[in-house]
Design brief:
Blueprint (H helix, E strand, L loop, with lengths): L1 H11 L8 H15 L3 H9 L17 H18 L3 H12 L10 H14 L3 H13 L5 H17 L9 H12 L1 E11 L7 E3 L6 E2 L1 H11 L3 E4 L3 H10 L1 H4 L23 H5 L1 H13 L4 H13 L16 H10 L2 H13 L11 E5 L4 E8 L7 H12 L3 E9 L5 E4 L2
Parallel strand pairs: 1-7, 6-7
Antiparallel strand pairs: 1-2, 1-8, 2-3, 4-5, 5-6
Helix pairs in contact: 1-2, 2-4, 3-4, 4-5, 5-6, 6-7, 6-8, 7-8, 8-9, 8-18, 11-17, 14-17, 15-16
């Protein structure tokens, strides 16, 4: 199965933006011919009701033939959709969702969402609505995908004239949250723009040409904030430091094979939490029970032990902050807020590592921290960005939108858009 997976990827690798449509179709059909050969392997695996691995190490299920076949099936469904064969793609999605098979629970939200879109294209709106409701009852669906499914359900509900459903009430909550988020609008002259390059804007105070994120940092600097343009790095660094001992717990079998790993091999799998449930739950409880001090004690201790050697840990960026800045930023959060963020990474590290606001700005004297999403003119928030803004607002973290508009007018701020 691994060789088949590799062969399919190799066949598809020549496709790029300049590939002629007829050539693209020929390549994708060839890949489909190969991919369908995994179906018997997947069905045989499912019939055995896999609930682990023969070695006794659960995460090694990721390397069984059936698990690899499941990955190929997801690829096959995507190819069917590209070729306009939605009915066959839906059949595959049904197989993947039929049971919560160990090893393929991660990414179920993406399967649900893509399945819904295929049903909608086929005109099966009632089926799509019912599927979306099933997805919201599925605890394996990551909260980020849950938001997208909820939004799709709202649109479908209006089209089908459905009565208000408590299961999708969170969509209205999210929409209300977005309306209340503080939006700062700065008017600036664009001085450079080119395809594939970051646009430059003239800072009216310094008269320098800077990218939009630096323009925002300059604005906050004038308001007395320190700040960094780090996107996901701030929250992944805090997560890595707070859960350092749990990430590097070598009592979990089979996740460390060399002393040079920067993370356990099951970090991106559904088995990460299962294998450390008691320790993770205890750490989250500690952060919530002592919201003013617990996180600072852990971060200070890990930083002191590992900063001097810059010990590698996935998602931890030692050069992002000095020790003092790190502790200052951490002191502006409380343990409940950080527990909320960390829980998202524990659910699905890979799925939730994108979409975090661009900037982290803070004032240590007032213990004020803001996570700021920056947008140039014409840019819009992605689903993952909306997800993070909603999550952070719900757990009490101050977030803000910083937007640039092309004009010579003075800067202004307001709530909502």
């Amino acid at each position: 199965m691994l060789k088949l997976h590799h062969d399919i990827n190799s066949i598809l690798s020549p496709i790029n933006g300049s590939t002629p449509p007829e050539v693209r179709t020929e390549i994708e059909l060839h890949a489909i011919e190969l991919a369908v050969t995994c179906i018997p392997v997947f069905k045989a695996w499912v019939s055995d009701v896999p609930e682990g691995h023969i070695s006794g190490i659960p995460w090694l299920t990721s390397f069984t033939a059936g698990k690899v076949a499941a990955s190929i099936l997801r690829h096959l469904a995507t190819l069917y959709i590209k070729q306009g064969i939605d009915d066959k793609a839906c059949e595959i999605f049904q197989w993947l969702l039929d049971r919560k098979l160990v090893g393929v629970r991660r990414g179920r939200g993406d399967v649900y969402d893509t399945y819904m879109k295929a049903l909608i294209r086929m005109g099966k709106h009632e089926e799509a609505y019912a599927l979306g409701c099933d997805a919201l009852r599925d605890a394996s669906v990551e909260f980020g995908r849950r938001r997208e499914i909820e939004n799709r359900l709202v649109k479908l509900g209006k089209k089908l004239d459905k009565k208000k459903d408590d299961r999708i009430y969170a969509v209205e909550t999210c929409a209300n949250t977005m309306k209340k988020i503080y939006t700062r609008i700065v008017f600036a002259e664009k001085t450079f723009s080119a395809t594939g390059r970051k646009a430059l804007y003239r800072d009216a105070v310094t008269n320098e040409d800077v990218i939009v994120e630096q323009l925002a940092l300059n604005e906050f600097d004038r308001m007395g904030f320190k700040g960094v343009h780090a996107e996901n790095s701030v929250v992944t660094t805090l997560f890595g430091l707070l859960f350092w001992d749990i990430l590097f717990d070598d009592s979990v079998p089979g996740v460390f094979t060399t002393p040079f790993q920067d993370a356990p091999m099951d970090l991106y799998t559904e088995f990460f939490y299962q294998a450390r449930k008691e320790k993770i739950d205890t750490r989250l409880s500690e952060l919530a029970a002592n919201p003013e001090t617990a996180h600072l004690e852990i971060i200070s201790r890990i930083d002191q032990e590992h900063r001097i050697t810059s010990t590698q840990c996935r998602g931890v960026y030692w050069d992002l902050f000095s020790r003092q800045d790190l502790l200052d930023v951490a002191s502006c959060f409380n343990g409940n807020q950080l527990a909320c963020i960390c829980d998202a990474f524990i659910q699905s590290y890979g799925a939730h590592s994108g979409g975090v606001p661009d900037l982290c700005v803070w004032k240590v004297d007032t213990r004020e921290v803001k996570l700021v999403e920056v947008k140039g003119e014409g840019d819009h928030l992605s689903h993952s960005q909306v997800m993070w803004l909603d999550l952070m607002t719900s757990c009490g973290i101050s977030v803000e939108l910083f937007k640039v508009q092309l004009s010579n007018k003075k800067a202004k701020s307001h709530c909502g858009e």
